[in-house]
Amino acid sequence: MIKKDKRIVLMGAPASGKGTWSKIITEKYALEHLSTGDLLRKFRKKDTALARKIGSYMDRGALVPDDIVIGMVDDLLTEGEAKDGFVFDGFPRTLPQAEALDLILEHHGESLDLVIDLDVDEQILVDRVVYRRVCIDCGQPYNLKTAAMRPKVEGVCDQCNGKLIQRSDDTEETFMERLKAYHDQADPLLDYYEKQGKRVAFPCSEMTEQTRREMFELIEEKLSL
Ligand code: ADP
Ligand code: ZN
Q: Is 209 a domain residue?
């Protein structure tokens, strides 16, 4: 493990493996994994008016307003939660969030080092979602298209013998809508970071030893580690 205080934003479409890559990178470089989705899920459990407001946006699948999310991130970074570096996952999602992040960091004499854009072939994203099955009892995920993720017995959970189901929103049609919504949000951000010279695309349709190595090489080259 190499200890470096680096600040990375990870961008990627739904089903691109963003959460998994965040884990791999934060473990390798001892960085903090910051996910606004996780933070908001924790926050909304409180019994306050703000928590209820946050919950109402999340339940609709809408973005939580910028001022709330930015305030949360500002608090987090000001408390020194991630002073030794971080990987942001799910933030920023809007241009005002990206601009606010730059300002917050500047305020602490810091700046963003790198924005990694996970680039996965669209058909692969669709397959990950459409062939996904989950156990109705324990939630264990499977994928019928990937040998390593297929259940031993068709339709039955390896872990608990529960029934495997397809989630109602795991259809190609719904997924294509989510993908479009992602691009509508992400493309302006990617332009913003492109202009700052911070964006780098990382082709990663598979997650293998090889792609892990390539990811580390890319980070070390870009950040001169
Ligand atoms: P998803 O891939 O479902 O969007 P996340 O865990 O990233 O999963 O986010 C869950 C929800 O939390 C989002 O649907 C949104 O309501 C809210 N959220 C997360 N990050 C942000 C953000 N940066 N800005 C606004 N809302 C956010
Ligand atoms: Zn199960």
A: yes
Ligand 1, pocket-test mutation among 64, 101, 118, 125, most atoms within 8 A of CB: 64
Supply 137's token pair: 């009892």
**What's the domain range around 211?**
6-121+179-223
Q: Which pLDDT score, from 0 to 100, does residue 80 have?
A: 83
Residue 154 lies in a domain: no
Domain-embedded: residue 166: no
Q: Is 7 a catalytic residue?
A: no
pLDDT digits (tens, 9 = 90+) for 2-32: 556 899 999 999 999 998 999 999 999 999 9
**Selected catalytic residue, list 41, 52, 145, 167:** 167
Protein residues placing their CB within 5 Å of the ion ligand 2: 135, 137-138, 140, 157, 159-160, 162
The DSSP H or E segment spanning 214 is helix 209-222
Identify the DSSP state of 63. P
159 in a structural domain: no
Query: For the domain that residue 18 is a member of, what is the CATH number?
Result: 3.40.50.300
Give catalytic status of residue 178 as yes or no.
yes
Residue 119 burial (10 A CB sphere; 0-12, 13-18, 19+)? middle
Q: What is the pLDDT of residues 37-57, one digit of tens each?
A: 999 999 999 999 999 999 999
The one catalytic residue in 18, 44, 128, 133 is 18
Task: Report the domain count for the chain.
Answer: 1
| Bridge partners of residue 117, in order along the sequence | 11, 201
State residue 2's pLDDT score: 55
Give 83's pLDDT tier (boundaries 50, 70, 90): confident
Q: What is the pLDDT of residue 4?
A: 67
